[in-house]
Design brief:
Number of domains: 2
CATH superfamily of the largest domain: P-loop containing nucleotide triphosphate hydrolases
Largest sheet: 5 strands, parallel
Strand order of the largest sheet: 2-3-1-4-5
Shape: globular
Length: about 500
Amino acid sequence: MLEKVDLKRKVSKAEYKKEAASLKEQLTALDAPIKAAKLPVIILFEGWSAAGKGSLIQKLILNFDPRWFTVVNTQAPTPTELRYPLMWRHWNTIPKVGQMSIMDSSWYQEVSTLRVEQHVSELENLRHMNEINSFERGLCNNGYLIIKFFIHISKKEMKKRLDALSADKDTAWRVSDADRAQLKNYDQYAECMDSMLEYTNTPEAVWHVISGTDAEAATLDVFRAVVESVQTALKLKADKDELSGYSSSIIQPGQYHFRKMPLLKDVDLDKSLSEKAYKSELKKEQEKLAQNHNRLYRHKIPMIICYEGWDAAGKGGNIKRVSAALDPRGYVVEPIASPTPDEKDRHFLWRFWKRLPKDGHIVIFDRTWYGRVMVERIEGFCTTADWQRAYGEMNDFERQLYDWGAIILKFWIHISNDEQLARFTARQNDPAKQWKITAEDWRNREKWDAYETAVDEMIRYTSTDFAPWYIIEGNDKLYARIKTLKIINEAIEDRLKKFEDKDKSKKGRK
């Protein structure tokens, strides 16, 4: 894509003055409709050192109300950020609906400059670019507008600008060793950036590659692209029929390998465990889990445990027996309730990205992102297109966590309709437990069949080989707790064995 850019293009002062005045008026007029339409906008700038990204951002933001935008200056990841998945720090910067995020560098650092500087392999870089495409597709499909600019200049022009900055004692500090390295290895960087642009130039988020040689021409190109992109997005957002077209990525055959799972109605709920056997097994499995937790931390392996299930199925008691075996400094339990106003104003996965553990730590989710395809689906809190598309988005999310190195386990605690009724009644009749039963619980019981259909579909489309579902027979709480602990220990030991075998293999080759 870089070879198609006309680096000699210039505009006259008169031409710039005339067109810029009109474009500035149009940019200023975008604030109100963006806010009214609740359109979240991300405008990102990538490009060469000294290409003029900062100046272009400065000129652009002068046309916007500062209350509705944030400028994000993306640096190389910190040691803390490196302990999280690749896209974690970028999910934390996405704007709320009706606001803009204007980025001086972005998630493309990982597949451009940092790729060259850190000697990232071709295979790993391809995985990173796929994660970026998935990230942008998910945002755009959920109503975000992403406008991407790459500012291109020649090696000769870069040298001229860096030399000029270095010659002035007031600006010499702006020229870093990384800038000089980019100039020295211009061709290598150019090849990397060109492949990045080609691979990530998608229908949802196209690249605007423009010449930075002439500042006035570049400014007009940026202003024009922003005006046209926002106006088009506002028109589409106002047209509900057009919005429904965003549901193109539900589940694509062959995209993932799904484990064959039984329907809920076919699960044998008569399994049980005696009190004596339970106490013996509980002690053994908790001791084993405590040891495994230490090994996870030593190898910096993160773990994500997800709990879903019927109301009164025993999730709380189950989680309590798991967490009792863990070092309190190395885990957190995240109870998930209805999204807050701040969470509703962003992509539905945003609040879960924010709750991910550092490597070597464990997070236990009491309710999860699967609310999108259960309660939100059944209660009409999202559109049909939203929940259908969510299967693919959640699989992509979990795949990124797995590629990061996480162990992901998902438990559906299953009880019969009759057992739930018995537990509801017992809670209602016990003053000490009445706080556990609400009118909403009784309303949800009336929708049992709808929920069962939704759960069967959820498990069918999201039980992958890298993030499997386990249906836990929960009519007997004691049996359910032990089965869950055993699955957790087996998953950890299986991963540790692969991890340690791989480590031994590396040492053997040396």
